[in-house]
Amino acid sequence: MSDISCRQISKGIAEGEAIVTHDPISFLGGVDPKTGIVIDKKHELYNQCITDKILIIPSGKGSTVGSYVIYQMAKNNTAPRAIICQVAEPIIAIGAIISKIPMVDNPDVDIINTISDNDNVIVDANNATITVN
Amino acid sequence: MELTKYEQDMYDGEYGEGKAECMEILTSLGKIYNAEKMIPITSAQVSGVSYKTIGDAGLDFVVDLGKKADVELETMLNPAGVDIENWQELGFSEEFTKKQIDIINGYESCGVMSTCTCTPYLIGNTPLINEHVAWSESSAVCYVNSVIGARTNREGGPSALLAAIVGRTPYYGNHILENRRANMIFDVDYDFKNEIDYGALGYFVGQIVNDKKPYFRLNDRVSRNNLKLLGAALASSGAVSLYHVENVTPEADYARCDESFDELEVVNIDESDIKETIQKLTTTDKLPDLVCLGCPHASISEIQEVAKLLRGRKLKGDLWICTSKAIKAISEQCGYLDIIEKAGGKIVSDTCMVVAPVEELDYEVIGVNSAKAANYVPNMANLDVVYDTVENLIDMISQ
Fold first, then answer.
1. Could you give the ipTM of this predicted complex?
2. Which stretches make up the Phosphomevalonate dehydratase large subunit-like domain (chain B) (predicted)?
């Protein structure tokens, strides 16, 4: 078990299984808000479901409408439980906050190569820490 | 980030849940951009209005926010997906229109004006130089920064709305005077002849500069209508939010007042760059079956020009001139609408060819005089484009 310090972007605490990608993600056109499945064929997570996971990504990209897609996922109960970005950008940050999904960025380690798929991860945005079990 | 007492109180929820949520989001954005404080704004313009672009997700968000928050200042919307008054006549579906009306009603319940235009500066939402604003439509951002000299970043749809609700935005980027200096120079040795030359210049330069701040030296002065087309093109092929034109735009003197200006990279542009860009923007040899003007939304003087061209003529193809409700009303009062309609054309309000579902309307080739529209229409609506001047386009669809 190790603690990683980070920066709070969206308040809250969540625990779950990690899903990790090296590709930045666009929620508009990249993720189906009805199912939580990644539908962008060029994406490393293509065909995988991010619902209820701790989503670990380098960053977001694409249209600002992506924020609303995250909001719709939260309403459909298909959203990830928490989001960890290496570097946050506005689209995912706004999406996470309006959807009340805990989100942190700027971890003090190379998070994408530190955490593996299915690791149990606790994101405590309020105290700006990530715990890996 | 340092907050004033009022900002902290809003953040802590003393002014309600809606404002608290907006402050949480805006301070997080400020953190991402290393803003040291918030800055009060005087005007907002919100994109993300068309049901085609924001879908049910955006509709939900706007309706929910409308229940708990109101904007504090003059806020207008970007174009919607249909002409709310004439959707049936233009062939848009009832289902789409209903969703579109729900979105606009949601914004209205936040206190946003329900006029939908990408040129709010033509209908009274016109800030003064050095005022801080939060605008999001890319061509309007480019105009308000460059031609008016007010200060905004390229906001996302949600962030402009949230800024309007709390009356401030994070202080970074274009809000800081030093960041408004030019960082690439374009010497253009060409005598511009018409509007598509300016769009082509913008399209060509946008690809080179991406989000830098270009400084133009041109042979002649430029009209406001052509500055509108130039900026829209710069903001669509690149991500330009601010440009300067020597002896024309208000901050051009400031843009070059630093010693480092003389060391900037200089790019020379000549006739061949402009002509090649114009050719590249047309995707077909066929003639247009729809001519769509008004990207960005037409000004009253642009509509007057079209009316002059149409007097006593009869069109065989369709003609839409996209503009705001306000400019359409003035066109009617001046008699231009009557001339245009007698020729068989239409003035379409509150929407445009970029955000409307034009792919559903059985057109194959759209004629445009806007490089921005020529850039987006093939991808967004999967149609062919002819890029030419108003005069030539109208000849192409005349009997």
1. 0.74
2. 1-394
